[in-house]
Design brief:
Mean pLDDT: 82
Number of strands: 0
Largest sheet: none
Low-confidence stretches: none
Helix content: over 70%
Radius of gyration: 21 Å
Order of helices and strands: HHHHHHHHHHHHHHHHHHHH
Number of helices: 20
Structural class: mainly alpha
Shape: globular
Length: about 425
């Protein structure tokens, strides 16, 4: 009875309820994405699926540029400076709006200079919509900071379901690749707009800006933006270079593998995001308690990721066959290897969380730049000869080097590294 009462008290805590809603959101999306996404992937085949994901890789880079790395610190700013909430939101909105427009123009110019096909240009124009609404998505961080993720989850899932139903309808009517390109981003685009309008009218929120606040946020955002850009580039560069140095079909095989592993990325992000305030409180009370909790999170992430990797590696052929069908048979061997990126990715999230709390953003920047350079070099060397398998090898080496071992290079992160691994 006592255990049951304690459990109920724990579940009622705002932090725990926030975690529950975020986990429910991700699990629901994972299930629906698997069902509908698999159906779409089968329908499109490796070539058309590869085309959409080749262009979408550029969009992914563009969205990171437009986000300006603010997702890494806005929640912390809103939690620590509640009295400045409106100023923080307005400043972030203005900067993201400017960045999204500039990024859009740069992408269009790049596609024109590199003589991409007309079909790829059309796909780009259809995938570009979420880039235009990155400023609206700033409102998400307000709800996270106030531990009210339930509202965001309900809004976004409503449009997510509509988008999934439209994809099914498109399959049934045998729509072409351009329809699926637009439906890939439909729910995100609509949800960003509606959520922003809901927040603005509910709170009678008015945007206002000040140049000192803009300058201060730019200064804070630059290390995060460059670091996040480096991360997304070496997560997307393989798809871009596969399209340039190999074939679009290889992009399709490789992307099928990434779609399977990316299902699990939400686990460390949700846990660390919701434990952020707890870690900050522990740090203020006791250094030993703070590092003990951080160490538990780190090794739990590594252990959980290793279990997932073993399961995926052993069942890769079955997973690919059941999900994507015989057309994607070449993806099985790639998945058996690529799934091991989960271990350094999970561990890297735990490391980065402490770097943010300790305000060591420069270290995040330096080690991700190391990873970017290494990944580009390895992809250029391996992709022409090994295709998707070469891209998988390059990604694994890069993730271990930048997410885990690069922490030993720098003095401040080495202290945490030594603590985690019990080095003196």
């Amino acid at each position: 009875m006592m255990l049951s009462k304690d459990l109920m008290k724990l579940v009622k805590l705002p932090e725990v309820q926030n975690i529950i809603w975020l986990v429910v959101d991700r699990v629901w999306r994972m299930v629906v994405s698997l069902i509908v996404g698999v159906w779409v992937t089968r329908y499109l085949g490796p070539v058309n699926f590869g085309k959409i994901n080749y262009v979408n890789a550029y969009i992914g880079v563009g969205i990171v540029l437009a986000n300006l790395g603010m997702e890494s610190f806005l929640v912390k700013e809103l939690v620590m400076h509640k009295e400045q909430r409106n100023s923080i939101i307005s400043t972030a909105f203005a900067l993201r709006m400017f960045a999204s427009i500039a990024t859009l123009l740069c992408l269009l110019l790049f596609f024109w200079i590199t003589n991409e096909t007309n079909e790829n240009l059309l796909i780009l124009l259809l995938l570009i919509f979420p880039l235009l609404t990155t400023s609206f998505a700033t409102i998400d961080y307000v709800f996270q900071a106030e531990l009210k993720s339930k509202t965001v989850v309900l809004f976004r899932n409503s449009f997510f379901v509509v988008g999934a139903l439209l994809k099914i309808l498109a399959i049934l009517v045998k729509a072409d690749i351009l329809v699926f390109a637009f439906l890939t981003v439909f729910d995100v685009f609509i949800a960003d707009v509606v959520l922003f309008l809901y927040f603005r009218f509910r709170e009678k929120f008015k945007l206002f800006f000040s140049m000192p606040a803009i300058a201060a946020m730019i200064k804070k955002a630059i290390p995060f933006m460059v670091a996040n850009l480096a991360i997304v580039v070496y997560m997307k560069i393989d798809q871009i270079l596969l399209g340039k140095l190999s074939t679009i079909e290889q992009v399709g095989y490789f992307t099928a593998c990434t779609k399977v592993t990316e299902i699990f990325y939400f686990i460390p992000l949700v846990i660390t995001g919701s434990c952020y305030k707890v870690l900050i409180k522990k740090r203020g009370i006791s250094s030993n308690a703070y590092f003990k909790l951080a160490k538990i999170i780190f090794w739990s992430f590594l252990a959980g990721a290793a279990i997932l990797s073993i399961a995926l590696s052993l069942s890769s052929s079955l997973v690919i066959s059941l999900l994507f069908g015989s057309e994607y048979v070449e993806s099985a061997s790639v998945l058996a290897l690529y799934c091991w990126t989960l271990v350094p990715i999970f561990g890297g999230v735990a490391f980065s969380q402490l770097m943010i709390i300790e305000e060591q953003q420069k270290i995040i920047l330096y080690k991700t730049l190391i990873g970017l350079v290494l990944n580009v070099i390895l992809n250029i060397v391996l992709i022409p000869k090994f295709g998707a398998m070469g891209a998988a090898v390059a990604t694994i080496i890069t993730q271990w080097a930048s997410s885990i071992f690069a922490n030993y290079i720098f003095r401040d992160s080495r202290l945490i590294f030594n603590h985690y691994f019990k080095f003196q």
